[in-house]
Amino acid sequence: MTITFEVIHKDIAGRVGRLRVNEKNVRTPALLPVVNPHLPLVTPREMGRMGIEALITNAYIFRRSADYRDRALAEGLHRVLDFDGAIMTDSGSFQLSVYGEVEVNNRETLEFQQAIGSDIIVPLDIPTPPDAGRQRAEQDLGVTMERIREAHRLFPDANLAGPVQGGIFADLREESGRAVRELGLTFCPIGAVVPLMETYRYRDLVRVVLAAKRGLSPATAVHLFGAGHPSMFALAVAMGCDLFDSAAYALFAREGRYITTHGSLKIDELAELPCPCQVCRSMTADELRKSEDRERLLALHNLHVTLAEISRIRQAIQEGTLWELVDERCRSHPRLLDGYRELLRDTAELEVDDPVSKRRFFYRGAETCRRTEVLRYHRVIPRIPLGERVLVSFDGSGTPGFDTVLNFKPPFGPYPPELAETFPIGQSETPEWDEEMVRAGCAGIRSLMEANPGKEFAVRCADEWARVVREEVPGAEVLHEQV
């Protein structure tokens, strides 16, 4: 039994990849819908017809079920659920997080998952709530790692997931990631993050995920446990998450909530169904509200929207436009925007994985100035060959007496005319210049000056930018009067 993960396309830290579980292939990023055999609003067979290649169910529920325990042991999980794709089983950790205890130990749940033919088994890790102190987080992590090592020892040939825990403490998350990496596990869920998402603590979520990623191997497929709403998928993928599991499609349907990429709406308040899925195009909002099959139809819609967002993200990665999609999605809620800005604080970390060249670069406001493409360009600016006297011209015109004349394009900064058609200068779309982008471009001038301390620099700009240039590039002569 084996799990392998192959990365095919990359953008930021997001990957389009191929997860191979035994003989089953899963395209990533991927959604694993949560299936409760007692409450199947959408059956696994239907999910397979929708293109779903993997799902997740709860081994603890199967183990305690009078209806399904013996069947699963006798026939196997795939036959009971009538699903040919990959099936991952949770150990009971979710129930542990909700109820504080479960009637099963680590070895028992692992043996049961193996016995029913789960493709990916999960040890009984300890989810640490976000409000827990450091001492508890350390203790919980210690128990989790003991159980992962026990699972690795008892079932060395199993497709074992290695959950990454540590509460909201970044160093513990990184430590957990390193420990799992040392065991050679290639499938690692990041656990105990549902409370962060339920309370919109996306800034903390970003810190937790990036810390875990620092400890994990780049070859690891990363699963974000309990991430179910499509509005945050792009942000999570940009951090390097490859798989998600979600019961939101069904839970929201039971509550009468209609999922969109920018949030969820109450079906009782909708006048129109703003979605192209089969459900929404076959009836009106009023007909959906009054339907006897309302919950099931809402679940189908919610699942279609969620799957469509996953496809949109995969396409954005292949186009090199994931930053634009993250920017768009994260402006749907102030807390998501907090998470986006937190991600941008780690641009230096993300830049290592981000492709050097892309199809285009769209400027979308102040956040854009901190993107990986800008940081990378500022890092290569010092390589530009210069004469003794250097002019950076905002309008592209020269002035006598200079050995080198460079053009200027914010938020990147100075560039030789020969690079005008190359990425990112030539493939960047910017609106009318604003102060934030010009300041970012001036940081590029500073990088050039710091790399060439013995040379003279001047900046030619219009009067409106002279103040900004003087503030951001204090060592350069400003020639705005001649414009």
Radius of gyration: 26 Å
Share in β-strands = 15-25%
Strand order of the largest sheet: 6-5-4-9-8-7
Mean pLDDT: 93
How far the N terminus sits from the C terminus, by CA atoms, comes to: 70 Å
Shape: elongated
The main pleated sheet reads as: 6 strands, parallel
The SS-based structural class is alpha/beta
Binding site for Zn(2+): 275, 277, 280
EC number: 2.4.2.48
Active site: 90 (nucleophile)
Enzyme class: transferase
Question: Could you please describe the fold and organization of this structure?
Answer:
With 483 residues, the chain is of the alpha/beta class. 42% of the residues lie in helices and 17% in strands. Helix 7 runs parallel beside helix 8, helix 19 packs parallel to helix 20 and helix 20 packs across helix 21. The longest helix has 26 residues. The radius of gyration is 26 Å and the shape is elongated. It starts with a strand and ends in a 5-residue tail after the last strand. The mean pLDDT is 93. Belongs to the archaeosine tRNA-ribosyltransferase family. It is an enzyme of class 2 (transferase).
What is the topological layout?
Elements lengths: L2 E9 L2 E8 L2 E5 L1 E6 L8 H6 L4 E5 H6 L4 H7 L1 H5 L4 E5 L2 H7 L6 H10 L18 H21 L15 H13 L4 E4 L3 H5 L3 H14 L5 E4 L8 H7 L3 E4 L1 H7 L2 E4 L2 E4 L11 H4 L3 H6 L3 H26 L2 H9 L3 H11 L2 H5 L9 E2 L9 H9 L8 E5 L10 E6 L3 E3 L12 E2 L5 H17 L4 E5 L2 H10 L4 E2 L5
Parallel strand pairs: 4-5, 4-9, 5-6, 7-8, 8-9, 12-16, 13-14, 13-17, 17-18
Antiparallel strand pairs: 1-2, 2-3, 10-11, 14-15
Helix pairs in contact: 7-8, 8-10, 10-17, 12-15, 16-17, 19-20, 20-21
Cofactor: Zn(2+)
Protein name: tRNA-guanine(15) transglycosylase
Family: Belongs to the archaeosine tRNA-ribosyltransferase family.
